Amino acid sequence: MRLQTRLSLVITSLILLTATAIGCFAIATSYSSQLNSSDQIIEGVIEELSSSNDNPLSLSTYLADISNLKFSVAYITEEYDLIPLHDGDSEISNSPKRAVVESALNKALNLDQSRIRAYQFSAGEYLLLYYSIEEINQTRSKNIELLTIFTALIVFISTLITLIIFRNDNELNLLVNLLRRNQQRIQEFIGDASHELRTPLTVIRGYFELLKKNKTDSNQNEVYQNRIESEIFRMQSIIDDLLFITELDDLNESDTSDSSISSQVQSMVDDLRFLQPKRKIISSIEPNLTMIIANSHLTQLLANISSNISRHTPQDSLVNIELFRFDGGIKLIIEDSGPGLPDYFYKNGIQAFQRFDKSRSRESGGSGLGMTIMEKIVKKYDGNISLTPSSYNGLKIEITFN
Question: Is the pTM of this model over 0.70?
Answer without folding.
Answer: no
